[in-house]
Write a structure and sequence with these properties.
The complex is a heterodimer of chains A (about 240) and B (about 300). Chain A is mostly helical and about 240 residues long. Chain A is built from twelve helices and no strands. In chain A, helix 3 runs antiparallel to helix 6, helix 3 runs parallel beside helix 8 and helix 3 packs across helix 11. Classes of the chains: A mainly alpha (about 240), B alpha/beta (about 300).
Chain lengths: ~240, ~300
């Protein structure tokens, strides 16, 4: 399976750049510990503690996938994207492969914040819920990983960083990862429910509360995933036009 | 086929057919349209008009089938991986689709003369080493068509020699090689056929001998006072008067100089290698009338390598 070889190569590159992994981990972890101790989240209740842990883990994951978009943009001047274009690889394979690597980069912030949640902030859940929350935090980042990959293909490194930062900060705030959308004006909360980020967080919030993910939420996320995949594949094809 | 970028007509009504198993040089100055032509052959760009067929298929399909290997003009190697890891990955990408026999990784690295570089980081190589690795990536799947865009640009003589040894080894296995170059000598030494491209058109097309007969390789200049009329001198393709000197662009400097001596027209004689740009200028002006009708007829489908 070609995809495996490609993912393995890009993962090797990722793991040999530990500075990158530390960077994507440090800021959300610090923010999580500061936020929760300043009590800006959902209060001191057990629900609130789970809420902010999931929110900040999701925030960290978004940061990680957007940062991998920047590293794709940095590969472009090297001709690496074009090199891939000239191999017998389908554009969808390359895009999915790179998105999987972006998702791999999201593992450290998710793991670190969940660990801090459990050990420092006394978040407690039955083991199977912990597993589900973590798995959904990871799987649910897929649409945004593909978006970050698309930014990387279409934009220069500098612009990919701007776009990534806008999503990282802007959509995290709007999507309710920093504070619940129930504290927003109702019109803004309605807007928030359409965003992929809110529906991404919702997956794990639901499961943490002992509920199944909502059908509407899953469909909204799937629609965004489709749109972002088209965006990324088009971006990939366009990024390799010159020899 | 044709391709424009805004007002710039990079490739104009160009018609080219390559026979399988031959080594063909695309010779032309910077901005001649060589790279644009190559990007269309590789399916990276789509022609505005006309079509490209590679080995009987669209370029995308030929690339997807692993039948084409390419070394683009620009590009460096990525960081974070060793040469062996990078070459191995590209070979595995080809192994999934290639039906014919492929060289083992060790064989491939020997062909490309990078056997001693396997453990090195791909982004920490010298120019010549990196270029040989890039060549290995291009031929990793034993492709039927190898496309090299200015493979030896910016390489020193020794690196050039090594790279050409590797390219020749692949050509000898029956691959069709298409390479672009600025250097007439390189095209002359390596290609079975030379296609001269200038301003998006084919200015000349033929064997090395045919091209050399038409492309003036030397400029002979003498004091203008001793040579009032340069016409009729052997080898001279064109001439110009520059102040007190007359410059003769010639395909046969020996014959030109002997004729000048016989006519007693030698004063301040100087023989220099003609710049390629100068050579092309002469060629395209001389070939303008003959090239035009062929180009006009070339609106239909074009086939590259059948």
């Amino acid at each position: 399976m070609m995809l495996v070889h490609y993912v393995r190569l890009e993962l090797l590159r990722l793991l040999r750049d530990p500075g990158y992994l530390i960077m994507t981990l440090a800021s959300p972890l610090t923010m999580y510990l500061v936020f929760t101790n300043l009590d800006l989240g959902g209060g001191t209740s057990a629900d609130g503690a789970v809420y902010s842990m999931v929110g900040m883990a999701g925030f960290g994951a978004i940061g990680a996938v957007m940062t991998s978009g920047v590293s794709i943009a940095e590969d472009k001047p090297l001709g690496w994207i074009r090199q891939l274009r000239l191999l017998p690889l389908a554009p969808s394979q390359v895009v999915v492969g790179r998105a999987l690597c972006a998702m791999a980069a999201a593992v450290p912030p998710i793991a670190a914040i969940c660990l801090a949640g459990g050990l420092v902030n006394d978040v407690s859940m039955p083991p199977e819920r912990w597993i589900l929350v973590i798995v959904l935090l990871w799987l649910g980042i897929a649409p945004l990983a593909v978006l970050g990959v698309g930014f990387g293909y279409l934009l220069t490194a500098q612009k990919a960083q701007m776009a990534g930062l806008t999503v990282y900060m802007g959509l995290s705030l709007l999507g309710g990862l920093w504070f619940p959308i129930s504290k927003m004006p109702s019109w803004l909360a309605d807007v928030s429910r359409v965003t992929p980020v809110n529906r991404y967080g919702e997956l794990s919030w639901q499961v943490a509360g002992g509920h199944a993910p909502t059908l509407v939420g899953t469909l909204v996320l799937a629609a965004w995933a489709t749109a972002f995949t088209v965006f990324a594949v088009v971006g990939y094809r366009r990024s390799a036009q010159t020899v | 086929m044709s391709k424009s970028f805004g007002d710039v007509r990079a490739v104009r009504d160009l018609d080219l057919r390559l026979e399988q198993g031959r080594t063909v040089a695309l010779l032309g100055p910077n901005g001649a349209g060589k790279s644009t032509l190559i990007s269309m052959i590789l399916g990276l760009r789509t022609p505005d008009a006309g079509t490209v067929r590679v080995l009987g298929e669209t370029p995308e399909r030929a690339v997807r089938a692993g039948r084409v290997g390419a070394m683009p003009q620009t590009g460096r190697l990525i960081g974070g991986v060793t040469v062996r890891e990078l070459v191995g990955f590209v070979q595995r990408a080809h192994a999934a689709v290639t039906r014919g026999p492929m060289p083992s990784q060790d064989e491939l690295m020997a062909i490309a003369r990078i056997s001693d570089l396997g453990g090195r980081r791909a982004d920490a190589l010298s120019g010549g080493q990196a270029q040989r690795v890039r060549f290995a990536l291009a031929v990793a799947g034993a492709p039927d068509l190898i496309v090299l865009d200015e493979p030896t640009a910016a390489l020193d003589i020794e690196s050039r020699r090594e790279l050409w040894a590797a390219i020749r080894a692949c050509a000898e296995r029956g691959a069709t090689v298409l390479f672009s170059t600025h250097y007439l000598e390189e095209a002359d030494a390596e290609a079975d056929r030379i296609v001269v491209v200038d301003r998006g058109r084919i200015a000349a097309d033929g064997t090395s001998d045919e091209i050399k007969r038409r492309v003036p390789g030397r400029t002979v200049s003498v004091d203008a006072s001793v040579l009032p009329d340069p016409s009729g001198l052997p080898g001279v393709v064109s001439s110009e008067v520059d102040g007190r000197r007359v410059r003769l662009h010639t395909t046969d400097a020996d014959a030109t100089v002997l004729a000048l001596a016989a006519a007693g027209a030698v004063r301040d004689l100087e023989v220099t290698g003609a710049s390629l740009e100068q050579a092309f200028l002469t060629l395209t002006h001389a070939g303008a009338e003959t090239a035009a009708p062929t180009a006009a007829a070339a609106a239909a489908a074009k086939e590259i390598v059948r």
